[in-house]
Amino acid sequence: MNGELRQDSNTKQLIFDCFALVEHLSTAFTLEPGDVVATGTPGGVGVAMKPPQLAAVGRRRARSRSTGLGALENPVVDRAGAS
Asked: Residue 19 to residues 10, 25, 65: CA-CA distances in angstroms?
């Protein structure tokens, strides 16, 4: 948040590798192109910090980056949409 690194991980850190996840999930339903598989979050999540450090208006931007895909950056806004 605002340039502070909170989480840094990769798929090698998953308990089950990507191939095992796809194999298991495809026994229950058909995976389609574009489907997203949520695998959880690595360490560093703000709610688990002491004290918790949640995203809040004033912490201007949250940025996520994925090697090979690029980055996504979003402003932190209040519920009404004002920054």
From this structure: 15, 10, 22
Greater model confidence, 43 or 25: 25
**Cis peptide bond prior to 42, omega within 30° of 0:** no
Do residues 29 and 36 touch, judged by C-beta distance below 8 A? no
Q: Residue 63 is encoded by which pair of tokens?
A: 């940025």
Query: What pLDDT shows up at residue 1?
Result: 57
Q: How many C-alpha atoms does 12 have within 13 Å on its Cβ side?
A: 2
The number of angstroms, rounded, from the C-alpha of 47 to the middle of its chain's C-alpha atoms is 14
Nearest to 14 by CA among 34, 42, 35: 42
Q: Is the pTM higher than 0.70? A: no
